Amino acid sequence: MQLEDHEIDAIRKQLEKRTILLADGARIPAIGQGTWRMGDDPFKHASEIEALRLGVQLGLKLIDTAEMYGEGRSEALIGEAIADIRNDVFLVSKAYPNHADRKRLAAACEKSLKRLGTDHLDLYLLHWRGATPLEETIRGMEELQKAGKILRWGVSNFDTKDMEELVSNPNGANCAVNQVLYHLGSRGIEFDLIPWQRDHRMPIMAYCPLAEGGSLKTQLLKDPDVVRIAAVHQVTPLQLLLAWSIRRAESDGIVAIPKASRPEHVLLNAQAASVQLSEGEQRFLDNAFPHPSEKVPLDIV
Fold it and tell me: What positions does the domain NADP-dependent oxidoreductase occupy (predicted)?
């Protein structure tokens, strides 16, 4: 995909206006790039490489992956894609919960670094909670940070009680982010997790902001209000869903990481940063897909 320099610059400038502040002062874009299931199909290899590189060029410099994704194939793909632009990327990976003790965490991190072709991660997450005590995992993360292998650490798929327990441990408050599922059709974290993390100045990284495939995604994309509001903004329903997920990115500290394995989809994701929903439009969407009125279990895929 060929874009003119002025087109790239215009999109980058919009993304530069939508950034999230981390506790250590670093800023990350409100939209990044997810990579689940990327690297699995050799016939998509060239397109996925092009998509990742275009995303960085457009300002989607945060790339999220995990050792679980294709058992390392996603990390290897990213390593190839960013080999000559590593300094332009905010690189995130995640460790299996059965690698959450200090020794295995260090070994898993080294393997991820090797596949990614880098000497450090900008952010390293525990993919979900397992049997290892949180205190042990925190110690492992802190040791990796002191060794320069990671610059920050965080967690994924932690609910409010998990976060409360995490920060009650020594150095637990050093957690930089919590990555959880969040989209218009799954708003459970708005009840208490988003407020808790906002109060503790810990941003949320929203995975599956466009919803995973299936009947729910179809319902979202065909909803009359979604279709109508998207048309008003001259964007696709998927772009509207992405814009909705970061509608309060700066105040609530939310980063969305949609996957796009094709350059044209990366472009659409990047353009969504310029969509600003009015209060009235948000009310229509709230009526169609209500804010939670009570605590619900954390959605996980």
Answer: 31-281
Average pLDDT of the segment spanning 195-210: 98
How far is Cα 107 from Cα 221, in angstroms, rounded to an integer?
Answer: 42
Q: How confident is the model at residue 90 (pLDDT cuts 50, 70, 90)?
A: very high
Q: Look over the chain and give the mean of its residue pLDDT values, rounded to a whole number.
A: 97
Number of domains in the chain: 1
Question: Which ranges of 160-201 does DSSP label H, i.e. alpha helix?
Answer: 160-168, 193-199
Residues spanned by the domain of 15: 5-213+246-263
Binding residues: 127
Q: List strands edge to edge, sheet with 254-257.
A: 33-34, 62-64, 90-95, 123-126, 153-156, 178-181, 204-207, 254-257
Residue 232 lies in a domain: no
Mean pLDDT of all residues in 217-228? 96
Q: Which positions are annotated as active-site residues?
A: 69
Task: List binding-site positions for substrate.
Answer: 127
* Claim: this prediction has a pTM higher than 0.90: yes
